[in-house]
Amino acid sequence: MAEKEKIETLVSSKEVLAGTSGFNETKWDTIVIGAGVGGLATAICLSRAGQKVLVLEKHDVPGGWCHSFYLDGHRFTPGVHYVGLLEDGEATSDLYRGLGIANELTFFRMNPDGYEHCWLGEERFDFPNNFELLIERLQEKFPKEKKRLKKYLNLIKTVSEEVQMIPYIKGFWNKLLMPYKTRHMGKYALFTLNRVIKWYIKDPLLERILNIQCGDHALAPDKVSFLMHAGLMTHYFSGGFYPMGGGGALIKAMTNTIKRQNGEVWTQSGVEKILMGKEKKAIGVALEDGRKIFADRIVSNADPEITYKKLIGEQYLSKKLLKKLNKTKYSCTSLMLFLTVDMDLRKAGMDSGNVWMIPNRDMNDFYEEMMKADLTQGDAFEGMFISCTTLKDPSSYDGKYHTLEAITLVDYASFEKYGNEEAHRSQEYIDFKDLLTKKMLNGLEKVIPGISNHIVQLEMGTPITNEYYVNTTRGSIYGTEKSLWNIGPFAFKNKSEIKNLYLCGSSILSHGVAGASHSGVDTAAQILGCTPMDLINPDDSQKLQLYDAEDDITYPEWLLKKIEVKRTRAEAKAALVS
Question: What is the pTM of this model?
Fold first, then answer.
């Protein structure tokens, strides 16, 4: 029977099964565990194909890393700092149009002259949102590297394009020619970034500038896959964009689409176990509150460690899978500082571009030091990512208070002993957190002098926070470590060895907002027996709205009015308080 016919049969012949709570529970076609963008993308595709889909989220809001939260009325998003390839015809734009969510989304183009600001010791470099201009700017700064630089950046682009081409290759002859059409990808697939860049680039400073975005996969150049980094760089060659309303706006658009297709998203519905039937087959889930819900298949947006070892149980796993799980490394974790300040940040030199601050020395050594560092030592963190939300999203600025997010990478080992604490944290943990907050502020002062005197509120998120709110293994921020042995053919598959169990998310295809979303589409395609492109063929009625964060001249009346209302309300509130 064709897959679509099977779906129609399932939809038209629902069974009602009794849960342990005593209530009757509808049997679903698919249950998705975790409402991150990967799980939500899967749910959109399956619900549009006619399936009855239920998404279960442990916390009180959906979104995973992409959710937004508020502190004293100011919005923050821990995992969305920029998105690339959003211009017409580019991959992420086509993804959102294909998912049917583009009409609900507005993005701001970050500073086109410098969406990334590199602070390498005393050295400075700005990444423009134009590939040719990037080459020109770097050639001007490094004239001796002129030819090698151009060859290297064109290789980056070519390799990434070949990787993206694979889902589009159809037909016997095209598939026969695939090794030739993707020859550059094949040639460099088993090399690290460090190995490849040193074949081309000789100037150490240029190498560090080109590798500055290693922070986006949290892995040193001598460990990360060259293909992974090539895809990352290419993702931003035409600039970075930030969603109006933060990551929460993206999640709202996705959940609205699921609900329009008669799917459901339940929050505060943590899954305790995946229920197993005969012959190692997933048949449903047991919730933390004791209810059991049944489905024909389960999709887990949790990482492989949590999915297989916690939700399934080692007794159901093959020796081969268990061995892979035990060998798998996860990305490092982070400290995140969320601040609201009453300071003119533009006057202080900030704009809508991100700031990467690291020392001007060997990046491999620095990453190794970060992971081995005693966090109680030193006055300030040397490596930080700094981003101003209210400059990236002008509609969120009330005319007085700016919000910032500052991040540094750390190893989970420093927090190991706090992992089993209950909701009431120990004084030792609180003191440790206060010490790290001061170090973060001291690092931030190097980029924005005097900011400590203008803090209205601040909160620190630690690896323990990551574990609690996003439920990741050891607080990891990007799923599995993006080394050679955790990507491509060596990554965990979206179709598991457990019958009727599938996976999606940042450990399956790729990480980041777009990568995790694409993984969700891939998983849905595996279930439906089609290609990912069949599910996200761009809809001509869908179009993203893109505006410049640095220039309001093209803003429509509704957006100008939104900004005006925001500021008027803030002024009225301030007057009332005074």
Answer: 0.91
